[in-house]
Amino acid sequence: MNQGKLEECKDFFRTLYSFIYLLGTHLKPHVAILNGVTMGGGAGVSIPGTFRVACGKTVFATPETLIGFHPDAGASFYLSHLPGHLGEFLALTGAKLNGAEMMACGLATHYSVSEKLPLIEEELGKLVTDDPSVIEACLEKYSDLVYPDKNSVIHRIDIVDKCFGLDTVEEIIDSLESEASLINDPWCGSTLRLLKEASPLSLKVSLRSIREGRFQTFDECLVREYRMSLQGVSRLISGDFYEVSNFQILNKHV
Protein backbone atom coordinates (compact mmCIF):
# COMPACT_ATOMS: atom_id res chain seq x y z
CA MET A 1 0.00 0.00 0.00
CA ASN A 2 2.92 2.36 0.70
CA GLN A 3 3.95 1.82 -2.91
CA GLY A 4 0.43 2.22 -4.26
CA LYS A 5 0.15 -1.44 -5.31
CA LEU A 6 -3.52 -2.02 -4.53
CA GLU A 7 -3.84 -4.79 -7.14
CA GLU A 8 -1.12 -6.80 -5.40
CA CYS A 9 -3.04 -6.45 -2.13
CA LYS A 10 -6.16 -7.71 -3.89
CA ASP A 11 -4.21 -10.68 -5.27
CA PHE A 12 -2.87 -11.52 -1.81
CA PHE A 13 -6.31 -11.64 -0.19
CA ARG A 14 -7.90 -13.36 -3.20
CA THR A 15 -5.26 -16.10 -3.16
CA LEU A 16 -5.51 -16.60 0.61
CA TYR A 17 -9.29 -16.71 0.77
CA SER A 18 -9.56 -18.95 -2.30
CA PHE A 19 -7.17 -21.42 -0.70
CA ILE A 20 -9.13 -21.36 2.56
CA TYR A 21 -12.35 -22.01 0.64
CA LEU A 22 -10.71 -24.98 -1.12
CA LEU A 23 -9.46 -26.28 2.21
CA GLY A 24 -12.85 -25.96 3.87
CA THR A 25 -14.80 -27.65 1.07
CA HIS A 26 -12.35 -30.27 -0.18
CA LEU A 27 -13.57 -33.86 0.19
CA LYS A 28 -10.15 -35.21 1.20
CA PRO A 29 -9.71 -35.09 5.00
CA HIS A 30 -7.31 -32.47 6.32
CA VAL A 31 -5.44 -32.70 9.63
CA ALA A 32 -4.08 -29.52 11.22
CA ILE A 33 -1.62 -30.02 14.08
CA LEU A 34 -1.75 -26.81 16.13
CA ASN A 35 1.68 -27.01 17.72
CA GLY A 36 2.05 -23.36 18.73
CA VAL A 37 0.57 -19.99 17.76
CA THR A 38 -2.64 -20.37 15.73
CA MET A 39 -3.80 -16.87 14.84
CA GLY A 40 -5.05 -14.96 11.80
CA GLY A 41 -4.17 -16.76 8.59
CA GLY A 42 -2.72 -19.62 10.62
CA ALA A 43 -6.15 -20.24 12.07
CA GLY A 44 -7.65 -19.70 8.61
CA VAL A 45 -5.73 -22.62 7.12
CA SER A 46 -6.44 -24.85 10.15
CA ILE A 47 -9.93 -24.40 11.56
CA PRO A 48 -11.92 -25.06 8.33
CA GLY A 49 -10.29 -28.48 7.97
CA THR A 50 -11.70 -31.83 9.03
CA PHE A 51 -9.49 -32.45 12.09
CA ARG A 52 -7.72 -29.97 14.40
CA VAL A 53 -5.27 -31.38 16.95
CA ALA A 54 -4.47 -29.02 19.83
CA CYS A 55 -1.75 -29.49 22.43
CA GLY A 56 -0.18 -27.82 25.45
CA LYS A 57 1.66 -25.33 23.22
CA THR A 58 -1.42 -24.21 21.28
CA VAL A 59 -2.32 -20.51 21.50
CA PHE A 60 -5.37 -19.41 19.50
CA ALA A 61 -6.62 -15.85 19.03
CA THR A 62 -8.18 -13.49 16.52
CA PRO A 63 -6.42 -10.24 17.54
CA GLU A 64 -7.27 -8.21 14.44
CA THR A 65 -9.27 -5.48 16.21
CA LEU A 66 -6.07 -4.51 18.02
CA ILE A 67 -4.44 -3.63 14.67
CA GLY A 68 -7.41 -1.84 13.14
CA PHE A 69 -8.55 -4.79 11.04
CA HIS A 70 -11.25 -7.48 11.38
CA PRO A 71 -11.18 -11.25 12.05
CA ASP A 72 -10.85 -12.63 8.53
CA ALA A 73 -9.68 -15.78 6.73
CA GLY A 74 -13.02 -17.45 7.46
CA ALA A 75 -13.16 -16.31 11.09
CA SER A 76 -16.58 -14.68 10.76
CA PHE A 77 -17.93 -18.12 9.86
CA TYR A 78 -16.32 -20.37 12.47
CA LEU A 79 -16.45 -17.83 15.32
CA SER A 80 -20.14 -17.21 14.72
CA HIS A 81 -20.84 -20.94 15.17
CA LEU A 82 -19.20 -21.26 18.60
CA PRO A 83 -21.39 -21.81 21.68
CA GLY A 84 -23.45 -18.80 22.75
CA HIS A 85 -21.74 -15.49 22.08
CA LEU A 86 -18.20 -16.75 22.63
CA GLY A 87 -17.45 -15.82 19.02
CA GLU A 88 -18.26 -12.17 19.61
CA PHE A 89 -16.07 -12.19 22.74
CA LEU A 90 -13.09 -13.64 20.88
CA ALA A 91 -13.55 -11.42 17.83
CA LEU A 92 -13.79 -8.17 19.77
CA THR A 93 -11.22 -8.73 22.51
CA GLY A 94 -8.59 -10.79 20.70
CA ALA A 95 -8.39 -12.90 23.87
CA LYS A 96 -6.28 -16.05 23.73
CA LEU A 97 -7.45 -19.63 24.12
CA ASN A 98 -5.23 -22.58 24.97
CA GLY A 99 -5.57 -26.11 23.65
CA ALA A 100 -7.91 -27.27 26.40
CA GLU A 101 -10.22 -24.32 25.80
CA MET A 102 -10.21 -24.97 22.06
CA MET A 103 -11.34 -28.52 22.75
CA ALA A 104 -14.07 -27.37 25.12
CA CYS A 105 -15.64 -24.95 22.61
CA GLY A 106 -15.18 -27.11 19.51
CA LEU A 107 -12.41 -25.20 17.74
CA ALA A 108 -10.23 -28.31 18.14
CA THR A 109 -11.41 -31.85 17.49
CA HIS A 110 -8.62 -33.61 19.41
CA TYR A 111 -6.07 -32.88 22.12
CA SER A 112 -2.72 -34.60 22.57
CA VAL A 113 0.26 -33.78 24.77
CA SER A 114 3.06 -32.24 22.74
CA GLU A 115 5.32 -35.27 23.14
CA LYS A 116 2.87 -37.39 21.12
CA LEU A 117 2.72 -35.10 18.08
CA PRO A 118 5.70 -36.71 16.29
CA LEU A 119 4.00 -40.10 16.73
CA ILE A 120 0.79 -38.74 15.22
CA GLU A 121 2.63 -37.31 12.22
CA GLU A 122 4.52 -40.56 11.72
CA GLU A 123 1.39 -42.71 11.83
CA LEU A 124 -0.58 -40.37 9.58
CA GLY A 125 2.26 -40.54 7.07
CA LYS A 126 1.94 -44.32 6.93
CA LEU A 127 -1.79 -44.36 6.19
CA VAL A 128 -2.73 -45.55 2.70
CA THR A 129 -6.34 -44.36 2.86
CA ASP A 130 -8.20 -41.09 3.12
CA ASP A 131 -11.11 -42.69 4.95
CA PRO A 132 -12.08 -40.18 7.69
CA SER A 133 -12.96 -42.97 10.12
CA VAL A 134 -9.46 -44.45 9.84
CA ILE A 135 -7.88 -41.03 10.38
CA GLU A 136 -10.21 -40.42 13.31
CA ALA A 137 -9.16 -43.72 14.88
CA CYS A 138 -5.50 -42.79 14.45
CA LEU A 139 -6.00 -39.45 16.18
CA GLU A 140 -8.09 -40.97 18.96
CA LYS A 141 -5.29 -43.43 19.67
CA TYR A 142 -3.05 -40.56 20.78
CA SER A 143 -5.72 -38.30 22.30
CA ASP A 144 -5.69 -37.14 25.91
CA LEU A 145 -8.52 -36.00 28.16
CA VAL A 146 -8.19 -32.36 29.17
CA TYR A 147 -10.35 -29.73 30.89
CA PRO A 148 -10.14 -25.92 30.89
CA ASP A 149 -8.65 -24.20 33.92
CA LYS A 150 -11.14 -22.93 36.53
CA ASN A 151 -10.35 -19.33 35.50
CA SER A 152 -11.09 -20.01 31.85
CA VAL A 153 -13.60 -17.95 29.89
CA ILE A 154 -15.31 -21.27 29.15
CA HIS A 155 -16.54 -21.24 32.76
CA ARG A 156 -17.83 -17.68 32.29
CA ILE A 157 -20.09 -18.40 29.34
CA ASP A 158 -23.13 -17.01 31.21
CA ILE A 159 -21.59 -13.57 31.64
CA VAL A 160 -20.17 -13.71 28.10
CA ASP A 161 -23.63 -14.35 26.72
CA LYS A 162 -25.18 -11.68 28.92
CA CYS A 163 -22.72 -8.97 27.82
CA PHE A 164 -21.61 -9.96 24.31
CA GLY A 165 -25.11 -10.91 23.21
CA LEU A 166 -26.14 -7.25 23.29
CA ASP A 167 -26.76 -5.30 20.09
CA THR A 168 -23.97 -2.71 20.09
CA VAL A 169 -20.37 -2.29 21.21
CA GLU A 170 -21.42 0.53 23.53
CA GLU A 171 -23.99 -1.71 25.23
CA ILE A 172 -21.43 -4.50 25.60
CA ILE A 173 -18.95 -2.16 27.30
CA ASP A 174 -21.64 -0.65 29.56
CA SER A 175 -22.78 -4.14 30.55
CA LEU A 176 -19.24 -5.24 31.39
CA GLU A 177 -18.69 -2.11 33.48
CA SER A 178 -21.93 -2.81 35.31
CA GLU A 179 -20.87 -6.41 35.97
CA ALA A 180 -17.45 -5.25 37.16
CA SER A 181 -19.10 -3.00 39.76
CA LEU A 182 -21.30 -5.84 41.01
CA ILE A 183 -18.88 -8.75 41.18
CA ASN A 184 -15.26 -8.91 42.25
CA ASP A 185 -13.91 -10.65 39.17
CA PRO A 186 -10.65 -9.43 37.58
CA TRP A 187 -11.83 -10.98 34.31
CA CYS A 188 -14.29 -8.11 33.75
CA GLY A 189 -11.53 -5.53 34.14
CA SER A 190 -9.10 -7.32 31.83
CA THR A 191 -11.83 -7.77 29.20
CA LEU A 192 -12.69 -4.07 29.35
CA ARG A 193 -9.02 -3.16 28.92
CA LEU A 194 -8.80 -5.31 25.79
CA LEU A 195 -11.88 -3.63 24.30
CA LYS A 196 -10.58 -0.14 25.07
CA GLU A 197 -7.20 -0.92 23.48
CA ALA A 198 -8.85 -1.95 20.21
CA SER A 199 -9.78 0.23 17.24
CA PRO A 200 -13.34 1.54 17.87
CA LEU A 201 -14.28 1.16 14.20
CA SER A 202 -12.84 -2.36 14.09
CA LEU A 203 -14.96 -3.32 17.09
CA LYS A 204 -18.14 -2.20 15.35
CA VAL A 205 -17.21 -3.79 12.02
CA SER A 206 -16.16 -7.07 13.66
CA LEU A 207 -19.32 -7.32 15.74
CA ARG A 208 -21.48 -6.93 12.65
CA SER A 209 -19.29 -9.39 10.75
CA ILE A 210 -19.81 -12.14 13.34
CA ARG A 211 -23.53 -11.43 13.50
CA GLU A 212 -23.87 -11.66 9.70
CA GLY A 213 -21.65 -14.76 9.58
CA ARG A 214 -24.12 -16.61 11.78
CA PHE A 215 -26.62 -16.60 8.90
CA GLN A 216 -24.24 -17.00 5.96
CA THR A 217 -22.52 -19.93 4.29
CA PHE A 218 -18.76 -20.42 4.43
CA ASP A 219 -18.25 -19.04 0.91
CA GLU A 220 -20.53 -16.05 1.57
CA CYS A 221 -18.45 -15.19 4.63
CA LEU A 222 -15.20 -15.34 2.64
CA VAL A 223 -16.60 -13.14 -0.13
CA ARG A 224 -17.77 -10.54 2.40
CA GLU A 225 -14.45 -10.70 4.29
CA TYR A 226 -12.58 -10.12 1.02
CA ARG A 227 -14.53 -6.92 0.41
CA MET A 228 -14.03 -5.85 4.02
CA SER A 229 -10.29 -6.48 3.83
CA LEU A 230 -9.94 -4.37 0.70
CA GLN A 231 -11.76 -1.54 2.46
CA GLY A 232 -9.44 -2.03 5.43
CA VAL A 233 -6.27 -1.54 3.40
CA SER A 234 -7.63 1.13 1.02
CA ARG A 235 -7.82 3.93 3.65
CA LEU A 236 -11.04 5.18 2.03
CA ILE A 237 -13.00 4.82 5.29
CA SER A 238 -10.33 4.50 7.98
CA GLY A 239 -6.55 4.58 8.16
CA ASP A 240 -6.32 2.53 11.37
CA PHE A 241 -4.89 -0.64 9.82
CA TYR A 242 -2.54 1.33 7.58
CA GLU A 243 -1.23 3.39 10.52
CA VAL A 244 -0.70 0.39 12.81
CA SER A 245 1.04 -1.56 10.03
CA ASN A 246 3.38 1.31 9.27
CA PHE A 247 4.11 1.73 13.00
CA GLN A 248 5.01 -1.98 13.25
CA ILE A 249 7.24 -1.76 10.16
CA LEU A 250 8.98 1.33 11.58
CA ASN A 251 9.62 -0.38 14.93
CA LYS A 252 10.97 -3.45 13.14
CA HIS A 253 13.62 -1.37 11.39
CA VAL A 254 14.57 0.81 14.38
TrEMBL record:
GO terms for molecular function: 3-hydroxyisobutyryl-CoA hydrolase activity. It is an enzyme of class 3 (hydrolase). The keyword tRNA processing does not apply. It catalyses: 3-hydroxy-2-methylpropanoyl-CoA + H2O = 3-hydroxy-2-methylpropanoate + CoA + H(+). It comes from the Eukaryota. Pathway: Amino-acid degradation; L-valine degradation. One of its GO terms (biological process) is L-valine catabolic process. Keywords: Hydrolase. Its EC number is 3.1.2.4. InterPro entries: ClpP/crotonase-like_dom_sf, ECH_dom, HIBYL-CoA-H. Signal peptide: none annotated. SUPFAM superfamilies: ClpP/crotonase. Residues 3-252 form the Enoyl-CoA hydratase/isomerase domain. Belongs to the enoyl-CoA hydratase/isomerase family. PANTHER family: 3-HYDROXYISOBUTYRYL-COA HYDROLASE-LIKE PROTEIN 1, MITOCHONDRIAL, 3-HYDROXYISOBUTYRYL-COA HYDROLASE-RELATED. Hydrolyzes 3-hydroxyisobutyryl-CoA (HIBYL-CoA), a saline catabolite. Has high activity toward isobutyryl-CoA. Could be an isobutyryl-CoA dehydrogenase that functions in valine catabolism. This is 3-hydroxyisobutyryl-CoA hydrolase. It comes from Citrus sinensis (Sweet orange).
